[in-house]
Amino acid sequence: MENSRACYVLVFVMAAFASGVPNSDALDTSHEQETKVMEITKQSYIVYMDKSMKPEHFSLHQHWYTSLIDEVSGSNSDPAAMLYTYDTVTHGFAAKLTSTEAQAMENTDGCLAVFPDYVYRVHTTRTPDFLGLSSSHGLWPLSHYADDIIVGVLDTGIWPESKSFSDQGLTQVPARWKGECEMGTEFNASHCNNKLIGARFFLKGYEAKYGHVDEMENYRSPRDEGGHGTHTSSTAAGAEVPGSSLLGFAAGTARGIATKARLAVYKVCWPEECLSSDLLAGMEAAISDGVDLLSLSISDSRNLPYYKDAIAIGALGAIEKGVFVSCAAGNAGPIPSKIFNTAPWITTVGASTIDREFPAPVVLGNGKNYRGSSLYKGKTLGNGQLPLIYGKSASSNETAKFCLAGSLDSNRVSGKIVLCDLGGGEGTAEMGLVVRQAGGAGMIQANRLVDGEDLWTDCHFLPATKVDFKSGIEIKAYINRTKNPTATIKAEGATVVGKTRAPVVASFSSRGPNPLVPEILKPDLIAPGVNVLAAWSGHVSPTGLTSDKRRVDYNIISGTSMACPHVTGIAALILAVHSAWTPAAIKSALMTSSVPFDHSKRLISESVTALPADAFAIGAGHVNPSAALDPGLVYDADFDDYVSFLCSLNYTRSQIHILTRKASSCTRIHSQQPGDLNYPSFSVVFKPLNLVRALRRTVTNVGGAPCVYEVSMESPPGVNIIVEPRTLVFKEQNEKASYTVRFESKTASHNKSSGRQEFGQIWWKCVKGGTQVVRSPVAIVWE
Ligand SMILES: *[C@@H]1O[C@H](CO)[C@@H](O)[C@H](O)[C@H]1NC(C)=O
Ligand SMILES: *[C@@H]1O[C@H](CO)[C@@H](O)[C@H](O)[C@H]1NC(C)=O
Ligand SMILES: *[C@@H]1O[C@H](CO)[C@@H](O)[C@H](O)[C@H]1NC(C)=O
Ligand SMILES: *[C@@H]1O[C@H](CO)[C@@H](O)[C@H](O)[C@H]1NC(C)=O
Ligand SMILES: *[C@@H]1O[C@H](CO)[C@@H](O)[C@H](O)[C@H]1NC(C)=O
């Protein structure tokens, strides 16, 4: 099956990395313009309803919703206008309406809000060893590899033939499972087994926007067109597959994290876009089917408030049913505050490196060597030096330095190695294609300043490598001052493990402060998301390019998309051991046990600056599965706590109703502030007349034994932290105790500190009865 969209997911991921920031603003404007043009044509909207207002003569809420569509459409009424009705994670429906009809809908009795169908996007094996998981002891054997746990993945679908989804050695499907294997293009019930226990697809919202999805364009079934969903699903819960590699790179046993957990996939991305109406429908189905956890490597890119954000709405519905939800933080780093999926009931995951590299150094004519990284497999350039040219000099066209399509003059680049800058907005494999089409022999890609030393690596079909920002500058200077500059690329297909400092925060990983609610620290934690090997769609090339005819079973890609399913898998293992824990307790365990240090016991660093990374980059730290199993204390929270949190945001009754499916009264807890949520981390915002904040926290003893905890802290230089009491005594399991933390700015005048950020931490240590350490990061901002 050949088609032009085949590789869009990966392509988008690469392009997003290359340009640093997904081009969200451009997307926004085109969308708004579209909305204006569509006055008479219909587009999809989500209509959120107060179900308690249903008139009695409608026996079912569906009848009421249909009658409302008829009412607002009048003679324009279309029986196909209704796309979905929602009843599990929210109340309401998605429908195709004109903008006039949508306005009329907003004024009908019982309607809480009408929002357009927003666009979401996917963010694009040594990892288990790197995370300290072992088959001889600890979390894997204790959890029985999560064999009774069902992981739901909302993504681009699945390639069911991958060995990662073999059910060898697995018992029957858990009896409580209510899901199914939906039939469609090249997919039927026989593609499911005791590993892949459910597979569905949702495309009514996508089709309302783009028209009928042709079978030549994408599988009209749960089958994965681009590979992204296959990759994330196998990372969370793929079986053990010995002898896996990408073209020989990263060879070894590929394993998901929860190797025996069951998978249910919900294809909601097609593949470049995921519509909120399809996402909500997928989340509803997953929860009704009986998943235990949900993994979403997807986000919107405009930071919608939680009551407009399908993922936040669906996730709160999931949490109420006890379903843990983890999401990717986004690939918009290192720019501050471009972080997504920030609702406190979601576990938000940033990306970090592992200690595995694919070295492909550059050697210049002057004998100088530069570290490079590549997943190129094929004929090498050998030791012979080839002429070297900077793309910028290969044409008069400004875009030539980025090696964009049509920009290179083949007379000038033919037979040469071409140096190209990242950041032109094109995927890195596409840049290689441009160089090759112009007759280039090889390609060196230079990081931008914001990419720092990150050598997240791409698959190429010509000898190519990527160098860090500083090396790029030096190579350009060499080209500039040398009459006949030459180079070679030693892309020899090596995989090197354990030699590099890791984990390091990936440059692209999205950073706090949380733009929606600065008092909730995000991301929550980081996990491996750079150069991750996992299963791939069997009919698409590793570069994602249509012109690349190679086919692979496993692929190596990078993104917070890859980090999220690691945390989902670890949460599945923890849930298998602690079946009574709430999603908030699991999240707390993951956060308070995570580590701020790398494998050489230095603070985790930033790849761009090589300086220690702060809590806006790493949250609580790098996930530490074995310690998460026995966190000692947890910061628990239930649905009502999140309702109080929504009240503290001053959301209107209707807005809260959309998220909670019921009318909530906020009066009782009106004095609350967002930071009062019982969260496992602290984010304090000092304002000009508010330089003291006092927060209360409650911890629950899950350590199983009596224990005396004592508090320690590392105060930020400009802040006094006072914790009261300093000792907490627990006599029994599940006992709760509360404490208050006072944060006092040392500078009396806010003006001097305005814009400053400082960091610290607070930890409770079991000093009698155990050894657990319960650590919370502290972030302070003087607004
Ligand atoms: C389901 O798909 C398999 C594999 O493609 C095929 O062999 C089988 O005949 C199909 N079954 C049905 C009922 O269509
Ligand atoms: C420069 O290259 C771009 C493609 O990268 C192309 O769209 C544009 O037309 C070119 N401009 C000129 C002046 O050739
Ligand atoms: C090469 O050097 C000259 C003079 O030092 C400078 O003006 C020019 O910008 C440089 N060109 C490149 C491509 O670095
Ligand atoms: C909510 O409103 C109260 C009262 O006007 C105000 O003090 C508080 O800062 C507001 N909270 C947020 C998060 O906007
Ligand atoms: C802080 O700065 C603002 C303007 O920058 C000024 O109006 C105000 O008086 C200053 N406040 C103090 C306490 O210095």
Automatic annotation (TrEMBL):
Residues 1-26 form the signal peptide. Residues 387-473 form the PA domain. Residues 218-228 have a biased composition (Basic and acidic residues). GO terms for molecular function: serine-type endopeptidase activity. InterPro entries: PA_domain, Peptidase_S8/S53_dom, Peptidase_S8/S53_dom_sf, Peptidase_S8_Ser-AS, Peptidase_S8_subtilisin-rel, Peptidases_S8_3, S8pro/Inhibitor_I9, S8pro/Inhibitor_I9_sf. Coiled coil: none annotated. This is Subtilisin-like protease. It comes from Picea sitchensis (Sitka spruce). The lineage of its organism: Eukaryota, Viridiplantae, Streptophyta, Embryophyta, Tracheophyta.
